[in-house]
Amino acid sequence: MGDTSRDPVDHARTTRQHAGESMKNGHNAPGLIGVALGVVSLFIGLAAFASGGTMAGVICVSVSAVAFIAGGTWLFLAHRRVRRQELEWADKNPRVDSDVVAQPPTS
Fold it and tell me: Is the four-CA dihedral 19, 68, 32, 54 of positive or negative sign?
């Protein structure tokens, strides 16, 4: 089968688009970590607001917003890179029925 570590799409095991993209594509890790930090920071900020720590709550919710935006942007750009590579792979590896074009992404 060869080395497929540079190809983020697992063509050999599935026909579904982007199945397992988060697991196979290591470039998603910083985005996933950023979103996770955003969730944790949001919960800490809400707990700080509930206990009366307004300044700590504002800081944590602000950090949460930045982490969500940064993580989401990273995931968006990584997904676009995967889609671009997917279209390049479809161009280099034509199917037997050549009149079938690459499917649009479902995600």
Answer: negative
At residue 84, what is the residue type? R
Q: Is 99 contained in some domain?
A: no
For 104, the 3-state DSSP assignment is: coil
**Residue-number span of the structural domain to which 77 is assigned:** 27-87
Task: Tell me the whole-structure pTM to 2 decimals.
Answer: 0.68
Neighbours of 105 (CB within 10 A): 13
**82 occurs within a structural domain:** yes
Rg of the chain on CA atoms, in Å: 19
Q: In this structure, is residue 32 part of a structural domain? A: yes
pLDDT digits (tens, 9 = 90+) for 43-82: 999 999 999 999 999 999 999 999 999 999 998 998 888 7
80 class by beta-carbon count within 10 Å (0-12 exposed, 13-18 middle, 19+ buried): exposed
Provide CB contacts within 8 A for 8, sequence distance 6+: 21, 24, 25, 27, 81, 82, 85
Number of structural domains the chain divides into: 1
